[in-house]
Predict the structure.
Amino acid sequence: MSDLVKLGKELEEALRLRTKIIAYKKLDRAADLEKIPGVRRIDRLMTFCQIPDMVRVHEWTVGVTNKDPMNPRCMNMCGLSEATKDGIWIEAAVMATTWMPSHEESLKQQDEYPRMPAGEAIVLAPLSEGKFDPDVVMIYGNVAQIMMLMCGLQKRKYENFHFSFLGEGDCSNSVARCYITGKPALGLGCYGERAMGQMADGEILLALPPAELERAVLGLRDLAALGFKYPIRFIGAEHEPFTELAEFYPQDRVAEAIRKVTKG
């Protein structure tokens, strides 16, 4: 866990993130919350999207059990209850009056929601506090910061990232998808996350498996050594760009790369 803490702090500094990286964990037993220091419990009706804001902005550690007063739809997305056939049918009916064009179309959306298997509790905390080993790491940043983060992942091992947008309830599309697939998952945010979770207009979310954090940080180090770092240096549209680009692509390095490929 100490390695994750160090990597998280380095990532926050390298990308100049506005808020803390979040550690998310699903617990099979609610009693295990007692083992985590400083857990806050919320005693009012809430949505899941409100919790990440409490963690990344206020730096709270927040625990929720399947007995707490959370919106049922949130509970079956974030790992606190199993979705039932009747519950999905009702949720689709509600969504058909708002975000979806019909009940039939809304059921298609419900069928495609990633939903993690249920446990008795979940807990979220700033990763930098090292309170537990997370299942998912949640990183909120502006588009340029998240773009650089994904480029860092690619710098160490190329992979074509495929992301989706399911509409309202996008926290499931990021956190739950990452949990289920073990792959990075991008969330654009939805109306609920922005209205209730205070996700800023320019922010998006990347959910990462903890094992990928080192790959991202090492890749960002490699890119920084070449001159590619955040904040991105503006060259501008009014100038001939190649003089400045030569700092990133020096002729001797380019020539050496071509020689290696040619010899190979």
Summary: The chain has one domain: 2-225. Residues 2-225 form one domain. The CA atoms of residues 143 and 204 lie 6 Å apart. The first strand starts at residue 22 and ends at 27.
